[in-house]
Model the fold of this input.
Amino acid sequence: MNVIILAAGQGKRMHSDLPKVLHPLAGKPLLGHVLDTARKIGAEKICVVYGYGGEQVRNALNAPDIAWALQEPQLGTGHAVLQGMPFAVPSAPTLILYGDVPLIRASTLHRLIEAAGTGSLALLTAHLDNPRGYGRIVRVDDRVTRIVEEKDADGAERAIREINTGILVAPTAALARWLPGLSKRNAQGEYYLTDIVAMAVAESMSVVTVHPDAVWETEGINSKTQLATLERVHQRNIAAQLMEAGVTLADPARIDVRGHLGCGRDVGIDVNCVFEGRVELADRVSIGAHCLLKNCRIGNGARIAPFCHIEDAIVGPDSIVGPYARLRPGTELGRDVHIGNFVEVKNSSIADHSKANHLAYVGDATIGSRVNLGAGTITCNYDGANKFRTVIEDDVFIGSDTQLVAPVTVGRGATLGAGTTLTKDAPPDQLTVSRAKQTSIPGWKRPTKNANPKKKV
Ligand code: UD1
Ligand code: MG
Done:
């Protein structure tokens, strides 16, 4: 199977400097979705016809299985396919896809490919209540005779509701024969790919049609409104799949998955959560409202309370995170770790049963088991030029408002008094405290307001 993806158009109606096919849907460029579907149906080599935004498109999506064909200038869909022909193997049929039709499904393409066999032209068509703008499928006695573009159609043709989605499969040798013969004597002065249908009919080749399972599969994106519409369709589909697999969603209309979300059994997700990259939620995980999770793994039974931001992190089983916690890249929490509100963790490991429940910064630290970090504990990991590690061994208790000036180690079982600024290692099993001695002044009087205050001398 040869696959040619048309992606040279500018996308004027996006009103954007970004080439249309690079606009993201569910966090992935439109063209990326089409490429992935082409790979799913087993395409070994995919030809992308590119033009507008040239190198930017290539650089964003380049891969060894893509052959890039530059179309410059863009003279129409027929001219676009012609640019891709040198990459097509003549013995296998050619599938034409559009880079701005992102949600086409492999199952529909399989049916189209099957219908084409080796010697037929197969068109993916749909019946629309409002066919405006599309090419119409003209039939005589039920047989397709040609496609007429909206701009070239007369009143009767415009009334036809069967439209050309643009996606088709053609025998490659015939395609190579037809394309150079296209003419641009039409309303748009373009080489229309759709004119190959009449050419096939003239050669008595069979022209068959297949319909998509769902109309949204063949919807193209020309504007930000259409982009948002298809984004919702896609998210609704993902939500449906998650629920089919047993995930509880508080509201399937309020979840966004921009990548892969894997879920175990009895996972619950509250409203307005965003999942990016690869996220794995193990059995019985619950995610509170308004969380953003990116590239992370959450262990069995762990609970993420509302308003957490978690990126490139691992949360161990039965841990509790949030509300309002931030786990930055390189965070690894063990089993039953508690990270509370306004706690930030970065590039640190925190072992089993340890807690940082309030207002702390843990950066570049290795923290043992059963450690208690008091409210306001700060690792001072950065001297303005370099970063250093803090090591806190098992069973340590850190009093509130403590600064640990790295590099520094707190020995096993040590206690740091509240307010300590630790600049040297703290020995195990001892109380270490750095604090000005507390004094009280007997007979001291609080100043009172004076009607005629005298200036102090
Ligand atoms: C095309 C079809 C029309 C169909 C509609 C479905 C033709 C002549 N018409 O019309 O029958 O109903 O799609 O959406 O084929 N492209 C290039 N190079 C070009 C021109 C287009 O790569 O020179 C690409 C575009 O980037 C886009 C696709 O081909 O991905 C379709 O082009 P577009 O201009 O949208 O075609 P339509 O006029 O909508
Ligand atoms: Mg179009």
In short: The helical segments are 30-40, 54-61, 77-84, 106-116, 155-158, 172-178, 196-202, 224-244. The longest strand covers residues 162-170.
